[in-house]
Design goal:
The complex is a heterodimer of chains A (405) and B (258). Chain A has 405 residues and is of the alpha+beta class. Chain A is 56% helix and 20% strand. The model of chain A has no long low-confidence stretch (mean pLDDT 85). Chain B has a single domain, classed as P-loop containing nucleotide triphosphate hydrolases (Rossmann fold), CATH 3.40.50.300. Classes of the chains: A alpha+beta (405), B alpha/beta (258).
């Protein structure tokens, strides 16, 4: 029998019982749709996390002070702080793979300005800070290298601080006081929102690192450093380089432990997305089970159908159909059921994903590979579960089949 | 004349629960091209078993069967299927049309399984076959929209469509009233007059009288094999019988009277 006839015969007998065919495919429809939707929600969540982490900055490397040990007692991160402004300068001057470095000197203080006061964190940084953090100014200007060198008392306000201190006026040109030291407001940062930990990134005042360190905080050591690698590919090389330069600066001998820690943005992303990856896998696996259950549904109905159509099979055999013709007819029917089910499932999943992301604010990413996989799996399920009933049909004896009531 | 069917000493024994049932006990039968043979016999005489063997649906336990010059013993299942497809046309008692499938598609069915490609245009061929049984106008009707006689005529068209060497009809009038039976037989007679060989199993003596030759089976053996001397012409008989339409009108009048 020609394959085109085969498909015609299979399609005709499916169309003869439309409701049943649709209900049989329903298992596959739900299976395929749920696999795709589940995975797309999972991948959407993952992408959200990645985006949030990338919003920390571009190709970001973070250098933290190391942990010290005294008499075998480890005193935790930051207990041995030997990072200085000179370290930051050294990296800027000597590195190949680092585009920009900004030391961070943090302080938390009560700020007075515009007749209001507000407790916020003050970050001393370098002019490259905005590049590293991928942040922009809403208005005004940022401090310059010259401001840093001369420890000028200028401040750039985060959006939250600007709104708290100067709700009704433009803060630029106004004065604020931190620990009774007057600062000129020269700029306002654009809104960044919350970071992944839920902290308000806009609740901050930026000032030159030297100003914060020497005028507000005192001491020699900075809190941490932000650095930006020249490209994503060079992140690892940049990390190596920072390690090398800082060990040299701190005169750490071979075999001794680092007195600092370098965190790579990709490490952070991997860490944060590992949970959601597991969830995606779990959801996908559960959805796969429903796909298999759908396949069993097809087998079930095909078996009923073979019994119900025993006489039809007898007629076909008597008229000269070979066993293989009957086998392929039923196999084709099962496959067509699962493929149409798969196609409808894919369409439903697209519709659902669209609705989820547009009306429920859930981000979904439909992975073409996943669509292909789910569809292919549905086809395999159809062939696999269709084989047994088809085999049963093809092995019927024509005389018995014709006599079947 | 060419031998279409030639059997030598065909025996068929069924075993059920260790008890052997001898359905056929040695059948020697030769049917030549252009014959119209009625096989008669009481139930249990083995006529259905013989029909199944002649139709290559079943294999004899022993003996030889040649169909159109081809020995059928020792063939594979697929070869049997191909013989059924190319050399035999079946007409069954209960029509055995596919439900919810148009008359045309039913008639076309054997051609879907034809691997030789000897019939170039299956749809035209199926239409031609329907025309020969006088149902060309009803080709789009499904079996449940056709009367019993019409369904049987569709089945006859289906048996014709593959240019068979022989048409095997198993009690083709068993489910029909007497007038429709004669109508169906008249189709057979017409086909036979055009040179098609027909073997028909029947237990109705008056239907057998339309054939040219009657073979009587008894307990798995041929008891009698004779030519029909006074062959009836179905068309002539139909003219004498009141039409079904008239019958219906009479019945309706009677209902109205009540």
């Amino acid at each position: 029998m020609k394959w085109i006839n085969l498909i015609k015969v299979a399609l005709k007998s499916l169309l003869k019982s439309k409701t049943r065919s649709l209900l049989t495919s329903l298992g596959i429809i739900i299976g395929v749709a749920s696999v795709i939707i589940m995975v797309s929600i999972g991948e959407g969540a993952q992408a959200d996390i990645e985006n949030q982490i990338s919003s920390l900055g571009t190709n970001l490397l973070i250098v933290f002070p190391g942990a010290s040990q005294a008499h075998g007692v480890s005193r935790g991160a930051g207990s041995e702080n030997r990072l200085t402004l000179d370290d930051a300068d050294k990296i800027v001057e000597e590195s190949q793979y680092i585009e920009a470095v900004s030391p961070i000197v943090s302080s938390s203080d009560q700020v007075i300005g515009g007749g209001n006061n507000w407790n916020t964190s003050i970050s001393g940084a370098s002019p490259d800070y905005l590049i590293i953090r991928d942040w922009e100014l809403e208005s005004g200007e940022f401090f310059t290298e010259k401001d840093v060198r001369s420890r000028r008392k200028v401040a750039v306000l985060g959006m939250t601080v600007a709104e708290e201190l100067f709700p009704d006026q433009d803060p630029i040109g106004e004065k604020i006081r931190i620990r009774n030291i007057p600062f000129n407001v020269i700029g306002v940062l654009s809104e960044k929102g919350q970071n992944i930990m839920g902290r308000d990134e806009d609740d901050v005042i930026l000032a030159p690192s030297t100003t914060v360190l020497y005028r507000l905080k005192g001491g020699r050591y900075i809190n941490m450093m932000y650095a930006s690698a020249i490209s994503v590919e060079q992140m690892d090389a940049a990390e190596e380089e920072i390690n090398y330069l800082l060990r040299e600066a701190h005169r750490i001998e071979y075999g001794e432990e680092d007195d600092f820690t370098v965190r790579n943005q990709t490490d952070i992303i991997d860490m944060a997305t590992s949970t959601s990856k597991t969830m995606t896998l779990l959801l996908g696996a559960i959805a796969c089970v429903s796909l298999i259950v759908g396949g069993i549904g097809i087998m079930n109905i095909m078996l009923v159908s073979v019994t119900e159509r025993t006489r039809e099979i007898g007629i076909r055999l008597a008229l000269g159909a070979r066993g293989s013709d009957v086998l392929f007819q039923f196999l084709t029917e099962a496959t067509v059921l699962s493929l149409t089910g798969g196609m409808i499932g894919v369409m439903i999943s697209f519709l659902f994903a669209f609705m989820l992301s547009n009306f429920m604010g859930l981000s979904t990413i439909i992975n073409p590979l996943m669509v292909f996989l789910a569809f292919g799996f549905a086809a395999i399920v159809g062939v696999f579960f269709g084989f047994y009933p088809a085999r049963k049909a093809s092995n019927l004896n024509p005389i018995d089949a014709l006599r079947y009531e | 004349m060419k031998k279409i069917i030639e059997t030598k000493g065909i025996k068929k024994t069924y075993r059920t629960d260790g008890v052997a049932v001898h359905a056929l006990r040695g059948i020697d039968l030769t049917i030549r091209n252009g014959e119209f043979v009625a096989i008669m016999g009481a139930s249990g005489s083995g006529k259905s078993t013989l029909m199944n063997i002649l139709g290559c649906l079943d294999e004899p336990t022993s003996g030889e069967y040649c169909l159109d010059g081809v020995k059928t013993s020792g063939l594979s299942k697929n070869e049997y299927a191909d013989i059924r497809n190319q050399k035999i046309g079946f007409v069954f008692q209960i029509y055995n049309l596919l439900p919810r499938t148009s008359a045309l598609e039913n008639v076309e069915l054997p051609l879907l399984y034809d691997r030789t490609g000897r019939i170039k245009n299956p749809i035209e061929r199926a239409k031609w076959a329907l025309e020969r049984v006088g149902l060309y106008e009803r080709m789009d009707h499904e079996p449940n929209q056709l009367s019993g006689g019409e369904q049987q005529r569709v089945a006859i068209a289906r048996s014709l469509v593959n240019k068979p060497s022989i048409i095997l009809a198993d009690e083709p009038t068993g489910n029909l009233d007497s007038r429709t039976s004669i109508e169906v037989v008249s189709v057979f007679q017409e086909l036979n007059d055009q040179g098609i060989t027909i073997v028909m199993v029947t237990h109705e003596n008056d239907i057998a009288q339309y054939a040219k030759r009657i073979v009587e089976l008894h307990d798995g053996l041929i008891q009698d094999d004779s030519n029909v001397l006074d062959r009836h012409n179905a068309l002539d008989d139909l003219k004498v019988l009141p039409s079904n339409k008239v019958n219906k009108e009479i019945q309706e009048e009677e209902i109205l009277k009540k």
